[in-house]
Write a structure and sequence with these properties.
The chain is built from 16 helices and 19 strands. By secondary structure, it is α+β, with helices and mostly antiparallel strands. The chain has four domains: 93 residues, Uridine Diphospho-n-acetylenolpyruvylglucosamine Reductase, domain 2, CATH 3.30.43.10; 119 residues, Uridine Diphospho-n-acetylenolpyruvylglucosamine Reductase, domain 3; 110 residues, Alpha-Beta Plaits (2-Layer Sandwich), CATH 3.30.70.3450; 95 residues, Alpha-Beta Plaits (2-Layer Sandwich), CATH 3.30.70. Strands 12, 13, 14, 15, 16, 17, 18 and 19 form an eight-stranded antiparallel sheet that branches. It has a five-stranded antiparallel sheet with strand order 5-6-10-8-9. It has a four-stranded mixed sheet with strand order 1-2-4-3, with helices on one face. β5 and β6 form a beta hairpin. α1 packs antiparallel against α3. The protein is globular, with a radius of gyration of 22 Å. It starts with a helix and ends in a 12-residue tail after the last helix. 48% of the residues are buried. The chain binds flavin-adenine dinucleotide (FAD). The site of flavin-adenine dinucleotide has 36 residues, from β3, α5 and β10.
């Protein structure tokens, strides 16, 4: 207790006291994130708002002095308990005041940003220069650049454009002892030594603290159009994904909603969706205006051959936004079915996708659970969203058994337990199911090299 008081007093001395939160109520808020875990693990000792790199370094020095963990926090929207204290307290480092877009360089097609910049705001700003930053987790309206780098976020457009890791060219990182590490360069290519950019993508704040990022941009596609294709069976919808891919055309997105997801969205956020259908694919095409017509023709042909029973397409921005709003509302809608909701993120090689989707449905039926399935199926990725009442112990038990079976099925189908949401505190125990023990051992050694005293977001990933 005395040590905690000394830590708080030092934090207030080094930052302004209005940037340090310490009341029980304030700390309680930061013991939660969008993972919606059943049990709160631990309260942080303090929440600190940093305004620049020097302040981050000061906090790291104090964390070392008091042997207290540091847990970085963007918007707290990760769904795996990655930014809440686990097993111990610690200092929450809040980046909402480090939210400047430092530079958009049209010539080099790069941008330099602070970690607290909101992803959706950044995309809009970049687009003003005719450029494009593709990573688009469904909650891009609130999630931050720092959080999305640390989780290696993907989103609907990763089918064509890749994930966050593909856009990082340099990071300014504060290491566990408070020094500054630069991971890359301002150049678009870099074959000079190990690729530390990729190492930090998805590191969940366990290797270092991102204080600035330089990101690659690409030209903004001239035109875009989205289709919602409905099917009378889940299998037909999922098999259509591979039929599209086999034609070697490249939509920006091939996303999926099952009947429960369609009906739940329509119930709470009416969007004119066809609720009698078993599944839908949300397919976006983009690129040069002259190429769109050809892509549309080929895709419509494939959809018809695969028995799509209805196709809605966007003829203007209003229609485009209606379809995307519906797809992006699925978790919010699902949350209205029961007091709690969780989402997951499993991914398999595309040829095993149908088996995964049908298998997850069967597992949830066996355990009498509702599941709304959405996913970026172009990548082979599925998000089973399960509404649940944590106060119902029997339901919770069934839920845990179902989750374990879903991971086993994913592993049997040669898949992996996260394509974009990360591991956090939520899936630590599952790692050996899908990661080779030698690889795990190397990962642990990397963690030790960067953070020998285990002060950076401990008890996450491993
Ligand atoms: C409704 C909903 C839909 C979603 N859809 C998608 C989706 O389609 N695709 C997808 O990939 N994800 C999706 N997510 C997950 C979420 O968007 C990402 O995990 C998100 O990008 C995290 O950003 P954040 O700012 O909220 O980070 P936080 O949740 O605050 O933090 C995430 C991690 O980053 C670390 N961190 C934060 N800032 C820093 C920093 N400066 N330095 C080092 N580490 C840092 C934290 O410690 C934590 O480990 C969704 C989440 C929700 C709630």
């Amino acid at each position: 207790m005395l040590m905690k008081n000394r830590l708080l007093s030092d934090l207030k001395k080094n930052l302004s006291s209005s940037n340090v939160l310490e009341t029980l109520e304030e700390r309680y808020v930061y013991a939660q994130d969008a993972s919606n875990r059943k049990h709160m693990e631990n309260l942080p000792d303090a929440v600190v708002f940093v305004e620049n790199t020097e302040q981050v370094q000061k906090v790291v020095k104090l964390a070392n002095k008091y042997k207290t963990p540091i847990i970085c926090r963007g918007a707290g929207t990760n769904v795996v308990g990655a930014c809440i204290p686990a097993k111990t307290g610690g200092i929450i480092l809040n980046f909402s005041k480090m939210n400047k877009i430092i530079e958009i360089n049209s010539e080099n097609m790069t941008a330099k940003v602070e970690p607290g910049v909101i992803l959706g705001d950044f995309q809009k700003e970049v687009e003003k220069s005719g450029l494009f930053y593709p990573p688009d987790p469904s909650n891009l309206a609130v999630s931050t650049i720092g959080g999305s780098i640390a989780q290696n976020s993907g989103g609907a457009k990763s089918f064509k454009y890749g994930t966050t890791k593909d856009y990082i060219i340099d990071l300014k990182v504060i290491t566990a002892d408070g020094t500054i590490l630069k991971t890359g360069s301002n150049t678009i290519k870099n074959a000079t030594g190990y690729n530390l950019n990729t190492l930090f993508a998805g590191s969940e704040g366990t290797l270092g603290i991102i204080a600035e990022a330089t990101l690659k941009l690409i030209p903004k596609p001239q035109e875009k159009k989205v289709f919602m294709a409905y099917f009378d069976t889940v299998k037909e919808a999922v098999l259509t994904v591979n039929s599209i891919i086999e034609q070697r055309i490249f939509p920006a997105t091939i996303d999926f909603m099952d009947k429960n997801a369609i009906q739940t969205v329509e119930k709470f956020y009416p969007a004119n969706l066809l609720t009698d259908k078993e599944a839908a694919l949300v397919i976006e095409i983009d690129g040069l205006a002259c190429a769109l017509e050809y892509q549309e023709k080929v895709i419509t042909e494939i959809l018809k051959q695969n028995n799509a029973s209805d196709i809605q397409s966007s003829h203007d921005d209003k229609e485009y936004n209606r379809i995307w709003k519906a797809r992006r509302s699925s978790m919010g809608a699902c949350a209205k079915l029961k007091p709690n909701v969780t989402t997951d993120d499993v991914i398999v090689p595309r040829e095993n996708l149908a088996e995964l989707v049908l298998g997850i449905r069967k597992i949830c039926e066996k355990y009498n659970l509702i599941v709304c399935m959405v996913g970026h199926v172009g990548d082979g990725s599925i998000h089973p969203q399960i509404p649940i009442d944590y106060n119902n112990e029997d339901e919770y038990k069934r839920y845990k058994l179902a989750k374990s079976e879903i991971y086993n099925l994913t592993a049997e189908l040669n898949g992996i337990i996260s394509g974009e949401h990360g591991i956090g505190a939520e899936k630590r125990e599952q790692l050996p199911k899908v990661i080779n023990s030698v690889a795990l051992d190397y990962m642990r050694q990397i963690k030790k090299t960067f953070d020998p005293n285990n002060i950076l977001n401990p008890y996450k990933i491993f």
